Amino acid sequence: MTTTIETPTGVAQTMVLNMGPQHPSTHGVLRVILELNGEIVVKAEPVIGYLHTGIEKSCEAKTYSQVITLTDRIDYLAPLSNNLGYCLAVEKLLGIEVPKRAQYTRVLLTELTRIASHLVWLGTHAIDLGAMSVFLYTFREREGIMKIFEYVSGQRMMTSYFRIGGLALEPPPGFLDKVRQVMDALPGHVDEYEDLLTNNRIWLGRTQGVGIISADDAIAMGCSGPMLRGSGVAYDVRKAFPYSSYEDFNFDVQTQTAGDCFARYQVRVAEIRESIKIVRQAMERVAKADGPIRTEAPGIIPPSREEMKTSIEGLIYHFKIYTEGFAPPPGEVYQVIESPRGELGFFVASDGSAKPYRVKVRAPSFVNLQSLPRLAVGRLIADVVACIGTTDIVLGEVDR
Amino acid sequence: MEPQEADKNPVVQRLRAWDGQAVSEVIEFRGETTVVIPREHLQRAAGYLATEPFLYFAFLSDITTVDKFPLEPRFEVNYHLLSIARSDRLRLKVRLAGNDPVLPSVTSVWPTANWHERENYDLFGIRFEGHPDLKRILMPDDWEGHPLRKDYPTEGPR
Fold first, then answer.
1. DSSP per-residue letters across B29-53
2. Closest partner CB to A334 (pick from B32, B84, B123)
3. Which parts of chain B sit beneath pLDDT 70?
């Protein structure tokens, strides 16, 4: 695989270096085959599939409701975003509307997910580049958000809290107070991270001008999320195609024009602050809204516990939904949401039976990772680490 | 929506005006427009949709296949297009016979199609002619069969 190349000092042989699949900075099981001229990357080829679990195939053997538990495991740093994308797709297929209170609660929790995911990203990216302490701080704050998830759904990570037609459970009393406590502390903590990093000369040296991708290239390569916004394209699904009542919220789409690792860092930190704004608005709206947490659609959405216990129709529907499932009309839908990593799409095809005929996940990490060679070629090996880091891949989502 | 209403969609009107042969069917479902395109027109239509200033579907979101086995035409390959400039989405659909699952590659129009096409080749066995490096992406290189085909079992021996 080595080739002979011309260098300013004469003819040289390239060296092939295998980075991963066991490598701490590849965030899981990513393998990159690097062809090197000394320390300079001549060619980079990502090799994926080590974490392929056949989730899309498994979906075809489960009822529509059972698939929700699988979606948690696709992007395990943002399980609620996946829940939301899938639920919205099936709701679109069924043609049902979700009550406002459930929609606002969904917004609140997915924005908390975004914050938690960006915090993990920031901590691990900093540790990749040699800044240990940021990791400890961000994981401390993330823990507060994980505790909220546990309080609401009983699970820290694999929440499966969003269900088709609404939410799994009534949010417990005191939920909003817990969110408020975390949100009050968080802006100060974000300032602390920025104090440690934003003007840090070493940080700037490792990220500025590294891994540049232009706006046109980013669009051509299908990059989305902070990868695209870091290159100056103000595309955010929450603004362009609002879902779950995002049109009711005031927030700005954060962009940077440099298109390098530092720009993507700036976009993500700014997005944490924007998400705090959205969570605060969502808290007000959830507090004001009343009404059910699930839509009423007999035979599709499970009846309330009380109705199931007291009415014969409720009991029958409950039994039928949990044994047979429900059958949406034949058709195909493609629902896209803005996950922390970008454009997360769920394509669901129904043949009129109780199990999805096909579920396809358009994973933003999978597509974003494809541009890694463009970011890394011509840079040093150490910069490959920064490029992988700011691509923000989750291998569970890349390989599915 | 009724078929007549689907034809009022400006994107569909443009496509028809550009080449009536390129649109064989228009499907409207839940507010999403699907244009069914014959295989031989795919590459030209893709180039037109991506660059025509009024349409500007410069972003290819996804390529995915549905296997209708044992029905024929067996495969339906869906291209999900996005126009960031106009905030619009469109789905292109190409139907393929089970004994001839071959499509022209659209990597020259949308470079991002590279990995999507490799994935569809890997999991469904759709071959993309003109693809720069068509090989498996998720499954091991020496894997036999295409796991997302409907005649490939979810569990047990294959």
1. ETTEEEEE--GGGHHHHHHHHHH-T
2. B32
3. 1-7, 158
Chain B residue with the nearest C-alpha to that of A236? B84
Pull the structure tokens for residue A222.
């299908």
Is the peptide bond prior to B140 cis by the omega test (within 30 degrees of 0)? no
Size of interface A-B (CB pairs under 8 A): 90
The answer to whether the CB of A83 falls within 8 A of the CB of A72 is: yes
Best CA proximity match to A119, nearest among A272, A229, A254: A272
Query: pLDDT by residue (tens digit) across A274-303?
Result: 999 999 999 999 988 888 888 888 888 888
Helix (H, G, I), strand (E, B) or coil at B99: coil
Position A12 pLDDT exceeds 80 = no
CB contact (8 A) between residue B30 and residue A357: no
Helix, strand counts (H, E) of chain A: 17, 10
Compute the residue count for chain B. Answer: 158
Tens-digit pLDDT profile for residues A246-282? 998 999 999 999 889 999 999 999 999 999 999 999 9
Torsion of CA B31, B36, B42, B44, to 10 degrees: -70
How far apart are the C-alpha atoms of A265 and A198, rounded to whole Å? 9
pLDDT at residue B19 in the model:
82
* Structure token digits, residue A153: 């759904």
Are the C-beta atoms of A376 and A44 separated by less than 8 Å? yes
Distance CA B124, CA B102 (A): 11
Query: What local confidence, expressed as pLDDT, does residue B4 receive?
Result: 56
pLDDT at B1: 44
